[in-house]
Structure formats: structure tokens, C-alpha cells
Amino acid sequence: MKTVMIVAALAATGAAAPKMDGARLQAGSTCYAIVAGDKTIGSTLQTVTASRVGSKPVWDIVVHQKLANGSFDMRDHFIVDRKTLLPIRMDSQRGRERTERGWHRVSVEYGPHNVRGTKETSTGSTPLDVALTGPTWDGNLWGLTFAALPLKEGGNYAVPFWQYDKGLGTFTARVVGSEDVDTPSGKVAAWIVEAGDDPAQLARYKIAKATRRELGYTAGPSGQRLGEVCQ
Question: Which of 161, 195, 185 has the alpha carbon at shortest distance from 13?
Fold first, then answer.
């Protein structure tokens, strides 16, 4: 049924099947301010490192978010194929103590036909074992996934994903224009990409054309931008 739904979504939107290329990404660390309206409420440190799993070239990606002076602290760690960006392993840690609201520990491994692992919360541990019907990306990795697409004027894409809370789904991504974006190092030519897991509520990403660096995004009154100092 999920395969039929994804194919139907592609046909209905005219979206292209994803031709993901992780080689479009670059290694490095970037710090973002998380904002609500005109107020900075936290930070995101995103680190991309070239590594290997055995003989396979991979990207080792860490996305670490802190809000409200550290009262919210979540660290997602991804190992993905450096060429296709298909996930190999992912773990997520939110909160420090099991008694904290929203505390979790998630650890999964992706195979060619399934994803397996465990999710621990304050109420116990749940095994995860989900069959995959084709190439499936990780639903917790947003900006870099969209940056690895073959972005072009008018481009429209559908990216199948799995996420430990939402299950199987499809990212929508569409290029709606381009602009020169002010950054701490000067103006950067960027694609404007509306993207997300709900076609009715897409975030608006700014992705550098030359480097595919994520320059920030807005989602209603919230979002993130370059320029915060991360600890």
C-alpha cells in the first residue's frame, strides 16, 4: 500500500523521482540561531564529516539542537552513504534523564529491505522493524537531504523517507525561485526551496547554489538562520 501511495503522489504532483547525490554536500560545521519571530530561542550545531564504514565512503552527520538555555537538548547522529545519502545508521538522544518529559533514545540500522532498532522512552523500550520497498531516506535529516537533490529552476521532487515516530512517508521539495542571501561572509546566491513532510505546511529553505550549504529556513513565525555561537 505504501508503494502505491508513493507512486500516486509522484504522479499527482508531477514530482521527479529523487536523483540524490551526496557528493553535492561539503564537510564542515555550521552554527544556526533558532528563532521565533524576532527572538533567538536556541541554537543548532550541524557537523558534516567525511568518513568510512569499512570500504564505503560515508558522511558522518551530527545535528545538535539546544533551546531554552539547554532545557531542550537533542542530538541526532547519522551515518549515510556519501554518494546516495541513503542512511546506514541513525541514533537520536533527547534529554539527559529518563524522567524528563520527551526523553528518548533511538538507535536504528538500515538494510536494503528494512530498518531495525529500538526506541526507548520514559515508559519503556519498543523494538523497531519496518519493511522498506525501495530506496528510503531518513526522515529526521531535512536540510541536507534537500540540498543533495538536483535543484534547478522549477524543480519538483518527492523523496520517500522513514522516521521513528511518523513511519513511512514522502518529503515534498520544490524550487520556487532564487535570491542573493546575506550571510556573515557576504551575499550568497541561493535556491529557495519549499520542502517538508506535509505538502500543506512546507518550510522555506535557502540553499547555496555553489556549495549546497543550508543557509537557513522559515516555517511560519519560526525558523533558523546563520550566525549563532554554538558551545
Answer: 195
